[in-house]
Amino acid sequence: MATGARWAGIDASSFTSRSPWRVATRVVGPGNDAGVTSFPHSIDAYACAASVASRAADAPFEEEIPVTAASAPTSHPRPDVLVIQCDSLPPDLVGAYGDSHGATPAIDALAARGAVFDASCNAPLCTPSRAAMVTGRLASRLDCYDNAGEFSAEHPTMAHAFGALGYRTAIIGKMHFLGHDQHHGFDERLALDTDYSTGYDPRLYALAYDWDRPSGGNPNSPDMMGESYLAAESSSAYRERFRPGLHDERDARIHAQALAYLGRDRTEPFLAIASYHAPHNPFWAPDDDVARFDGAFPCLRAEVVAEAGIMDRWLNDFHYVPQVQERLMDAANLRWMYATVYAMLHELDRRVGELLEALPHPERTVVVFVSDHGDMLGDRGMLQKRTFYERSVRVPLIVSGPGIAEGVRCATPVSLVDLFPTLAGLVGAPLPADLDGVDVGAALAGGDASQHPVVSEYHGEGVHAPCFLLREGDVKYVLVHGFEERLYDLAADPGERADLAGSPEHAALLTRMRADLRRLVDPDDVARRARASQRRRGYIHRAVVGSAASG
């Protein structure tokens, strides 16, 4: 073969004129369902590859990366993988994690057939949390700091790894990707129109929070903060007030697309993420569903706890807690809020059950149930996510399927960056280098997951400095860079009431945790890069909004 016909491992002679090429440009338009983007079924791959090769005949490259045409095997031994994701669900509302109110029978049955993990998100905010999950890397390494943060298409995701084995891949519903690349390696984005972002929109850079601004309430969506946690005079009045932010209709469309996807005829294995908005605020469900859970309350102390430090103060200000806390913590309001959240969760659980029933080959399907982060929901008198308290940072993580032992309870702390390498290990997919996550597959077989540090970070709206969490076993260390440190013993103090950072007898432990965190992340470097990103995006936002206003 001539030198000009091979470049970066692409062998142009291996393509026929109509062979499907998995790295083709995605298309949107006639012929696709509403809210769907996908790869074309076939392109003139030979002409495309030959053109690339001819332009780079003598271009140097360090190594050849094999890229082959996607063939359609007549059968596949590898398992299908379905990840069911929800939004803002603390695990203590799920029966498999100890809740007794019966809102999650399908999820609990899935847990009984598989493994239940003590898991945390790697960022208690939608966009960076989900970016970390699909890449297996901390969001700060992706320069994805907040809900206006996009990450480069050069970062490999689980879709690339599974695609290398011939899997068809899809995201169905919410993933909160920002920017031009809404796929990040996934073949399809179904129900994309239900997501908060569907492409590049510099107006969304309004969420690129400037750490130098004065501490205060969220200027972009104040109603979605404190007020949405308060009951209205009636269910219909609440629905009318928060209608643009309600998720029930969006989730219905996501669910319909997910069921249709599972019902397709296919000869290739699939990796699909079906991602719902519930039970994210605003909180609304039909009156009869809410009545079913009237009086249901999780096992937490409904009490206001004094702010433990500056991160609490910043985020309470951002969430309008001082303005709503008295009404939030009123017994009748908490009763309404939890009955509604349980009703939303029960509807989500019904949909989980329907997805499980719709699996084309349940005996060879790995199923994951997970949330992106939690929600304080009145714990400590706080609301929303963004904090590092367990109610905000912990997530349910349940894995069931072939080769996974039943009834496993993994007490070793894990996090969402571990999901990519663990699923890749189950199917034998190749992994990119330098992942932060580790394969905890040993726990799925009933063994012990390796002890490894769990890192979570928050650098987004509401705070004024980079914030980090390091958990090693039951020890939890929090750093608000340049401001404060906190230290908790979760075994002795699961409610995180006693900060040990100032305790002389814990000085050595504090020193060790501080050093361990700095071996994993560089707070000074994150601060520099995050501020630079805020300045760039802030400039673009001001330029675009200003020009639009003047036009």
TrEMBL record:
Keyword Hydrolase carried by entry: yes
Pfam families linked: Sulfatase (PF00884)
Keyword Chloroplast found: no
InterPro entries, per the entry: Alkaline_phosphatase_core_sf (IPR017850), GAG-degrading_sulfatase (IPR051849), Sulfatase_CS (IPR024607), Sulfatase_N (IPR000917)
Residues annotated as domain Sulfatase N-terminal: 79-428
Family, similarity comment: Belongs to the sulfatase family.
PANTHER family: ARYLSULFATASE K (PTHR46615:SF1)
Protein name, UniProt field: Sulfatase N-terminal domain-containing protein
Keywords carried by this UniProt record: Hydrolase
